[in-house]
What does this fold into?
Amino acid sequence: MQIVANAEGIQLQSKLFRGFGDPARLNILQTLRSGPKTVTEIVSATGLSQSNTSNHLRCLRECGLVAAEQQGKYAYYHLSDDRVGDFLALGESLLADVARGVYECTRYKVPVRDGHGGAE
It folds into this structure.
């Protein structure tokens, strides 16, 4: 079934890609590829602050890319669907083939982050 056949579908797909488009969110998603983790483990793996990590996890959960399961006093976050990990792997594979063009691209700028995960 093709969802992206009209303008509304294009807008919806654009929203999906925003979840992958932020470096902090992408870092969290990449970290969760290896399995479920607590916020503390994600903070340790990504170097993001706890509050920044929690905010991005909330966004990723609301968008359906990440899910959480309570186990005792800890919430374990994981990718909501195996295809999220597959999508990240496909992105890595594609990047391996087009890295030079992406690196040299002047149209898409990655925001510079301050030490706390915010844009400068």
